[in-house]
């Protein structure tokens, strides 16, 4: 905690020092003080937008993780499906998600749907890929035993492969939680008037750089809190398995 | 009710083992002794119906349900001792008889460690859990793939005594590279070498339910003889 405070203080000092040293105008780089002021003066508006963004992030994260985990399990069952879908999944990651945002807005409108879809797209891959990796790493000794014991593929999946892959799934979820807000914000940049992304674009257009910074700050804090909560929740659930 | 394996196996184009004709007599311990890399475990896995990664030409026939115990105890890290012992029932979707599991855990001498996770057990204790799990399966044919190889000498001897006692009456195939182990436990000893499978002269009969004494002169003599056989 002490180091975090020291770090924040250092950043603030460097920030303010740069403004003084270079004589930057506020519309290029607002001072920490004016950002704090913008944050306070627009607190109600920022909170409303933040709530909107958070809803998108949570929904997108839940849907994206569920889809990613489900596909990983399906692929875990079938080597053929895996060899079919793996290259497709990798290929999908070569498409910059930024390029998809306008298309999603075109298809899904200006409400929450395209932002959630964007988040789902970003969350899906790390969860699916990490979980699939874990599902393929059940110790051979356990799989041999299960086969000799006369276990069905479904029960092997449920009792051995999935629990053995939980650490990898946790890694995927923690990673996805950090990226999820990026998806929502990209969606908000492109269309609609609500959410921190929309607020930033709007404020940027009116040269209200202090408000952009304030929204950015709230977004960062939100992301840290969200990622931390996911990590804690995951650790808590896993502890029951002793993993 | 016989268990037999006849055939030959290749890894790629290289012969893994020359044609073998292996018939297990029911109700006794057959030791398959040999150095590493001659295909002992492959034979066991073929009988168990497991993936081997080799090309096998021949046939395996038996109609006995099998239980397996290997060098890697294969314990599930997130399950406690009763959880591991009853794994088979859970994997088959059968009702889990915890009372029977507890009796077996007491039988292998782990009653006071029942709450432990595998990570908190010693190597010998882990193999005791594996033995209880094997007993819980209650199968007539038990396949042992070097189950005691990773243990220290004293623990290994103790586990041999325990296994001989608790698996009495079942048909056991023990794969081992350790001549003393074969000398203690085998009712029949089969030597697998690059040249093929040889049946060793039957050792003196064993008192049922016990391993031969590790320090008896005839056991030490047999062990030396088997070692000479392996070196030949």
From TrEMBL, chain A:
Keywords assigned by UniProt, alphabetized: Cell membrane, Membrane, Transmembrane, Transmembrane helix, Transport
Family recorded in the similarity comment: Belongs to the binding-protein-dependent transport system permease family.
Highest taxon of the lineage: Bacteria
Organism name: Paracoccus laeviglucosivorans
InterPro entries according to UniProt: MetI-like, MetI-like_sf
Membrane topology summary: Multi-pass membrane protein
The protein, known as: Putative hydroxymethylpyrimidine transport system permease protein
Subcellular location: Cell membrane
Transmembrane segments: 57-77, 89-110, 116-135, 211-238
GO biological process: transmembrane transport
Domain ABC transmembrane type-1 positions: 50-234
Cellular component annotations (GO), alphabetically ordered: plasma membrane
TrEMBL record, chain B:
Residue span(s) of domain ABC transporter: 1-219
Protein name per its UniProtKB record: Putative hydroxymethylpyrimidine transport system ATP-binding protein
Transmembrane segments: none
Entry keyword Transport: yes
Alphabetized Pfam families for the sequence: ABC_tran
Top-level taxon in the UniProt lineage: Bacteria
Residues of the signal peptide: none
A molecular function (GO) term: ATP binding
Keywords: ATP-binding, Nucleotide-binding, Transport
InterPro entries (UniProt xref): AAA+_ATPase, ABC_transporter-like_ATP-bd, ABC_transporter-like_CS, ABC_transporter_ATP-bind, P-loop_NTPase
Record flagged with keyword ATP-binding: yes
Family per similarity comment: Belongs to the ABC transporter superfamily.
SMART domains: AAA (SM00382)
């Amino acid at each position: 905690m002490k180091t975090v405070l020291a770090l924040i203080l250092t950043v603030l000092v460097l920030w303010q020092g740069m403004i003084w040293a270079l004589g930057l105008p506020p519309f290029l780089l607002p001072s920490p003080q004016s950002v704090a002021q913008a944050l306070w003066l627009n607190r109600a508006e920022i909170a409303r937008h933040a709530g909107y963004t958070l809803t998108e992030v949570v929904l997108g994260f839940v849907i994206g993780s569920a889809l990613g985990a489900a596909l990983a399990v399906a692929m875990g069952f079938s080597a053929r499906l895996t060899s079919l879908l793996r290259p497709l999944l990798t290929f999908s990651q070569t498409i910059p998600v930024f390029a998809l945002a306008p298309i999603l807005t075109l298809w899904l409108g200006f409400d929450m749907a395209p932002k959630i879809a964007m988040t789902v797209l970003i969350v899906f891959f790390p969860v699916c890929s990490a979980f699939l990796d874990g599902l393929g790493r059940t110790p051979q000794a356990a799989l041999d035993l299960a086969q000799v014991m006369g276990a069905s593929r479904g029960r092997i999946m449920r009792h051995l492969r999935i629990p053995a892959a939980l650490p990898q799934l946790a890694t995927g979820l923690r990673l996805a939680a950090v990226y999820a807000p990026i998806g929502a914000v990209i969606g908000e940049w492109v269309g609609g008037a609500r959410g921190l992304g929309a607020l930033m674009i709007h404020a940027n257009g009116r040269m209200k750089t202090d408000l952009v910074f304030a929204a950015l700050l709230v977004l960062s804090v939100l992301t840290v809190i969200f990622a931390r909560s996911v990590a804690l929740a995951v650790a808590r659930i896993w502890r029951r398995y002793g993993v | 009710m016989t268990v037999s394996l006849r055939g030959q196996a290749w890894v790629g184009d290289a012969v893994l083992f020359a044609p073998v004709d292996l018939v297990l007599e029911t109700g006794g311990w057959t030791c398959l002794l040999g150095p590493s890399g001659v295909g002992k475990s492959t034979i066991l896995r073929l009988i168990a119906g497991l993936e081997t990664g080799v090309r096998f030409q021949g046939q395996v026939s038996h109609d006995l349900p099998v239980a397996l115990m290997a060098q890697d105890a294969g314990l599930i890290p997130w399950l406690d001792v009763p959880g591991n012992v009853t794994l088979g029932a859970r994997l088959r979707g059968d009702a889990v008889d915890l009372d029977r599991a507890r009796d077996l855990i007491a039988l292998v001498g782990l009653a006071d460690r029942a709450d432990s996770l595998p990570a908190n057990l010693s190597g010998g204790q882990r193999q005791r859990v594996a033995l209880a799990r094997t007993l819980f399966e209650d199968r007539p044919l038990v396949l042992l793939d070097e189950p005691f190889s990773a243990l220290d000498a004293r623990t290994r001897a103790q586990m041999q005594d325990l296994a001989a006692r608790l698996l009495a009456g079942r048909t056991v195939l023990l794969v081992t590279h350790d001549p003393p182990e074969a000398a203690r436990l085998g009712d029949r000893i089969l030597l697998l070498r690059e040249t093929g499978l040889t049946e060793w002269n039957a050792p003196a009969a064993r008192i049922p339910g016990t391993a031969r004494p590790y320090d008896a002169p005839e056991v030490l003599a047999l062990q030396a003889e088997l070692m000479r056989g392996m070196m030949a």
